[in-house]
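ligand=3-hydroxy-3-methylglutaryl-coenzyme A
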Amino acid sequence: MEPWEEHAIRRPTLPSRVTVYEVGPRDGLQNEPETVSVEARVKFVDLLTDSGLKAIEVGSFVSPKAIPQLADTAAVYRGIHRASGTRYPALVPNLKGLERAMEAGVREIAVFTAASETFNQHNIQAGVDESIERFRPVIARAQEEKIRVRGYVSTAFGCPYEGAISPDAVREVVHKLLDLPVDEISLGDTIGVATPAGVYDVIESLYDSGVARGVLALHFHDTRGTALANVYAGLQCGISTYDSAAGGLGGCPYAPGAAGNVATEDVLYLLDGLGIESGVSLPGVVSASRALAASLGRRPPGRYLGAVWGAA
Ligand code: HMG
Ligand code: MG
């Protein structure tokens, strides 16, 4: 008999506490048609800090030709107020990026590759193995400086150029990153095609190959409306770090058709409703999104934000 037939719903065991890793200032703004001013980005990050977020990806140190919107990330780092106990990572593609990040006082970086060769070529002009080789000196230098390193695996659930991606391909690149080593892996649904079935498949394959739950984070874009369901699937798998962007902005110029990240407010509403602790104030994140909206001249797409938009 199924549980619902006997009127005894079995509630899944979920983590009691999660980390919300905010990517709004980086992923959220890298795909905006206009560059948001340094001053507005500093204010955005400071309001996100005030909300209680403990990890805020402030920007990237990539080629300014690839992502002109974030070319002045160093100035944003110079302007923000860094709260003790909050991490302010930056995205870095190579040694040059690490050097620029260190000059700006960055203490945590994220390198990024993909489960798909074609996407990687478009995004960072390197195949998967080539990108891993490129990261080696970056990791060595970061270790000398005791800089924490996250590794992103983009297109973990599907690729804009190659279509379906197998969990085997994801597992292979995850192990290559862990061998470098990196401290954390974020699995990216870059174009927002995942459903909970795919989340179970990828995570099960990683667990089966010995990957520890604690090193994994999930990064969902919400192109097809499945991002929050995928977060819930991740919770069922015991994953306790979720990437999201205040207001639900985001996308990658090299991932055609991708919509924004799952909105931080929407993730927090889900977590609060489930009684899962995050230490983040939902109204605090709404304030940050409102301030950013004033600079963008439009309301960001997040669902919770839309629901409270008219309220004072
Ligand atoms: P390349 O052309 O192979 O690089 O690009 P290169 O080493 O040959 O250098 C070419 C030029 O770029 C040179 O300048 C370098 O100095 C400069 P030039 O001599 O022509 O004047 N350069 C740099 N400048 C500043 N900072 C640097 C840097 N590196 C080189 N760090 C490269 C390779 C990786 C640099 C380029 O393709 C790039 O910057 N790509 C970044 C793309 C990107 O940021 N994409 C978005 C982020 S990823 C994402 O959004 C997915 C994620 O959210 C997860 C998910 O959703 O799946 C993380
Ligand atoms: Mg992304």
